[in-house]
Amino acid sequence: MSALHAGDPAAFATDVLDEGPAELEYEPGIASRRPTKTCAGGALIRDSAGRVLFVVPTYKPVLDIPGGMTDDNESPKATAVREIREELGLTVELGRLLVVDWTPRNGVWRDCHQFVFDGGIVDDATAHDDELEAVVYLTLEEAKPRIYPSLHRRLTLALEALESGSTRYAEFGREV
Q1: What is the CA radius of gyration of the chain?
Q2: Domain-wise residue ranges, the chain
Q3: Which member of 12, 25, 75, 143 has the lowest number of beta carbons within 10 Å of its beta carbon?
Q4: CA-CA distance, 94 to 129, in Å (whole number)?
Q5: Which residues form the Nudix hydrolase domain (predicted)?
Q6: Strand pairing report for 132-138 and 52-57
Q7: CA 73 to chain centre
């Protein structure tokens, strides 16, 4: 269930019913021929010194921000909240959307819409998941050699969005 309706399942059910009956295909099979995009939700969490919280995954050679891929019928914001709870053992109320970034297909991974939300200030976070070796707080420059260039660009935009109050749209980390 989406984070928007997490506190009110009846409102979510009403919203679904208000949409009316499920849309039917006028051309059989058209929906199954559409591309399948993936989606991810993550959070920009900082410490009191302004450094960014990065997770150290066991399953890839680079750092990442807390978050992950959405499950079926799960919103990006609900994904970020769930992943932060799983990865860090924290229940957070995420702030506003900072960045929407489209990333192209890369190897086995499909193209993806990535959403970065304001995760606020959290000091002394620790890893609470077997998928993580640790967490580290770093400036973006300190993190640069340990993260993908597109994530560096995306997080630079996220920090700019925090300061300006304006959400950014990017493609592969470059504002367009």
Answers
A1: 17
A2: 37-175
A3: 25
A4: 20
A5: 35-161
A6: antiparallel
A7: 15
Q: What is the pLDDT of residues 105-154, one digit of tens each?
A: 988 889 999 999 999 999 999 999 999 999 999 999 999 999 999 999 99
**HEC secondary structure over the chain:** CCHHHCCCHHHHHHHHHHCCCCCCCCCCCHHHHCCCCEEEEEEEEECCCCCEEEEEECCCCCCECCEEECCCCCCHHHHHHHHHHHHHCCCCCCCCEEEEEEECCECCECCEEEEEEEEEECCCCCCCCCCEEEEEEECHHHHHHHCCHHHHHHHHHHHHHHHHCCCEEEECCEEC
- The answer to whether the Cα torsion of 112, 159, 155, 74 is positive or negative is negative
| Cβ atoms within 10 Å of 137's Cβ, excluding its own | 20
- Given a contact cutoff of 8 angstroms between Cβ atoms, the answer to whether 25 and 108 are in contact is no
User: Domain 37-175's class?
Assistant: alpha beta
Confirm if 168 and 153 have CB atoms less than 8 A apart: no
Reading the block at residue 24, the tokens are: 């039917």
Answer yes or no: are the C-beta atoms of 70 and 79 closer than 8 Å.
Answer: yes
Burial letters for 31-49: b for 16+ Cβ neighbours within 10 Å, e otherwise?
A: eeeeeeeebbbbbbbbeee
Q: Please report, rounded to a whole number, the percentage of residues in the chain having pLDDT higher than 90.
A: 76
